[in-house]
Design a protein that fits this description.
Elements lengths: L3 E2 L5 E2 L4 H16 L3 H17 L22 E7 L6 E7 L7 E2 L5 E7 L2 E8 L11 E9 L4 E4 L5 E6 L5 E7 L8 E5 L4 E5 L11
Length: 209
């Protein structure tokens, strides 16, 4: 279960038979499909099975972090990333009461709750993004998530915020069609109609420069 890098540049921060089978399936799908919606649809049943298995994710990857690019106490643990930059799989850990900033992902994806409970707010952008630093957002969806629940990330619901509402730490699994910890994306401040670039980074591995 130590870090491994393959000849193709793939990085396995966690290497178990369960995870390897899942990732190999996802890579096979994205090698055959270009449409993000078709990729997500094909991966959904495999993602659901991974969420239902409580045995494969070590405790280390379910820990919080004192300092993090996503906010104090939030753990962003990379489990795998593809050498071509087209896939990353990670665990996001939030302490009780903690919430992420409002942020986007700029990729297709699936996000599912592995432990605890969360509230999610999905935002829609109302402006045309032509004014630097300005963003006009409205909440389009609020939902409560319990273990086994998951949702798709596509352009129409790419901006969101999640908050732990259980009395113990929540852990969500993120499958994204990019190296989301290392790309420059956006942090939003809806109450001030502001947006800024940010890069969250990973706790356990540096970004490739």
């Amino acid at each position: 279960m130590t870090q491994q890098t393959t000849a193709a540049g793939d990085e396995w921060l966690l290497d178990t038979p369960v995870l390897r089978q899942f990732i190999e399936t996802v890579n096979q799908v994205r090698g055959q499909e270009a449409d993000p919606r078709r990729i997500v649809a094909a991966v959904r049943p495999h993602f659901a099975r991974l969420l239902a298995d409580a045995t494969w994710l070590p405790a280390h990857f379910q820990e919080t972090a004192e300092e993090s690019g996503m906010g104090r106490g939030i753990g962003m643990w990379l489990l795998y990333r593809a050498g071509d930059g087209g896939l990353a799989f990670s665990a996001l850990v939030l302490p009780p009461g903690a919430q992420t900033p409002v942020h986007d992902h700029l990729a297709w994806g699936l996000v599912g709750l592995y432990r605890g409970e969360q509230d999610e707010e999905v935002f829609q952008r109302q402006d045309d993004a032509s004014a630097p630093g300005h963003a006009d957002l409205v909440v389009s969806l609020r939902q409560r998530l319990r273990p086994g629940d998951f949702y798709e990330l596509l352009p129409e619901n790419d901006i969101h915020r999640v908050r732990t509402i259980s009395p113990f730490t929540s852990v969500s699994l993120h499958l994204l069609g990019n190296d989301n910890g290392c790309i420059w994306r956006h942090r939003f401040h809806p109450e001030h109609n502001q947006v800024e670039p940010f890069r969250s980074g990973w706790l356990n591995v540096p970004c490739r420069e």
